[in-house]
UniProtKB/TrEMBL annotation, chains A, B:
Residues 211-237 are annotated as: Disordered. It comes from Bradyrhizobium brasilense. PANTHER family: HTH-TYPE TRANSCRIPTIONAL REGULATOR RUTR, TETR-FAMILY REGULATORY PROTEIN. Pfam families: TetR_C_33 (PF13305), TetR_N (PF00440). This is TetR/AcrR family transcriptional regulator. Residues 40-59 bind DNA. Residues 17-77 form the HTH tetR-type domain. Residues 212-227 have a biased composition (Basic and acidic residues). InterPro entries: Homeodomain-like_sf, HTH-type_TetR-like_transc_reg, HTH_TetR, MT1864/Rv1816-like_C, Tet_transcr_reg_TetR-rel_C_sf.
DNA sequence: AGCTCATGTGAACGGCTTTTACATGAGCCG
DNA sequence: CGGCTCATGTAAAAGCCGTTCACATGAGCT
């Protein structure tokens, strides 16, 4: 709700003052209220106070508006992930988990962006700049995975960073998509999506042999002596 | 394929010979072709050879048709998962992975069902029988997780089966949703979605302390040096 | 001032969803 | 067989949406 619309002084456009921006804002509002399917082009125009034909001066069609929103979403997403990753501070594992939480936070706090990005049904590769934005966002996760992979304990095969990144992305998206959204409309859980994802990531990292000093679940306390940290496939000798 | 009257069977209804079934079939076709958003009630009616108002004798509205399809999808899904799990044969871990693959196979081979179930945007709890079907399907995963949790190594705290089931579900759904569908329209991967998910599940299970030798052999078969028996992502360099 | 082009309007077309009044024919009962 | 009833399908219409097109308007430049 709190968006920087207050300083529209400088950019007074032609008739409306920039309509394009107003349409994007209206679409965001509508999508967050009724989902990307329920959003209508005409409604956005009405909300901006223009005729139903006006939006066509700024977007080829309805899909292009949604794609624009998705692209902005990816940009904001990238920025959020970058901030969460914080170049791996204070330590790689902690920062990595923070990225996962940022993923969930984004899905929850920006449902309009999120659904435009992942649930709108439009092909990712329709717009090349959209795909580029998507890849830039994913690059953050990939970079984080790269750093993490470099930390893999010696004496065992190093996990491919790309694969780790895809795994983390899939976990985050899975949790967000199934349980993450909405105060109401989703399935009920024994724990919060955040805790669920955190536990999942920790177990996963432990499976790769990373020292995960924190406890992986609410129920599981400080679980293992330091000597038994690695998986059964390659004990450090 | 004509859904008209070439099925001269005993089940001839009133005028059309059961229209309800024909509509469901038509909807499945349309959804698999154009996604749940692109599917139109009128098209289904046309494909069934009836007037646009006829479907309203069988479904309250368009959403109820989609919900019907989602429900059937969950039933078929449950059946598929049950079959894949096969009561944990030949061993629990193998059967568990097979369930994950079945998840992906379903998403790929029944995109219409899958998208009606997970991407149609209709609230899961709108229809109580729909939610029940969804929970029955999830119960298979949960039962499998239960069996797996019972096998946890004695030295470690036993992971909550419910949490494991949710983790597996999230992984499977995440992979399926991001990379699983389509010969064309998704992001490009360094490995198949099946392999990606299998590796993810194996790493996860290893993180829980499970022996994850892929071959249905003994659990204690790793007195080999680390790295000889390949990890979940193949041979290390 | 006058030109030009981006921006917005009004009207229109076709399609979709849904409702309403009406038609039809299947199954049943006497 | 005749007639009743109700489920099933039709026709028509209202209302909305996406999209297009001819036309209006006013911003900024010369």
């Amino acid at each position: 709700m709190s968006w920087r619309k207050d300083q529209g002084r400088a950019e007074r456009g032609y008739h409306h003052g920039n309509l394009k921006e107003a349409l994007l804002q209206a679409a965001l509002d509508l999508i967050s209220k009724k989902g990307p399917a329920g959003f209508t082009f005409a409604d956005a125009a009405r909300m901006a106070g223009v005729s139903p034909a006006a939006p066509y001066r700024h977007f080829r069609d309805r899909d292009e508006l949604i794609a624009s929103i998705a692209q902005r979403g990816f940009e904001q997403f990238e920025s959020l992930l970058t901030q969460a990753w914080d170049d791996g501070r204070p330590d790689t594992v902690t920062a990595f988990e923070r990225v996962g939480k940022a993923y969930l936070a984004f899905a929850r706090e920006e449902p309009a962006f999120y659904s435009a990005m992942f649930e709108s049904g439009l092909p990712v590769d329709s717009n090349p700049t959209l795909m580029a934005a998507s890849e830039r966002a994913f690059a953050i996760i990939r970079a984080a995975a790269e750093r993490l992979a470099a930390l893999a304990p010696p004496g065992m095969p190093r996990p491919p960073a790309m694969m780790m990144a895809l795994h983390i992305w899939a976990m985050s998206h899975g949790v967000a998509s199934l349980f993450g959204r909405g105060d109401a409309a989703r399935r009920k859980l024994p724990m919060s999506p955040e805790d669920l994802l955190e536990a999942e990531v920790l177990i996963y990292l432990r499976g790769l042999g990373f020292p995960t000093d924190r406890r992986p679940g609410t129920a599981a306390a400080d679980d293992k002596p330091a000597g038994e940290r690695s998986g059964p496939w390659g004990k450090p000798k």
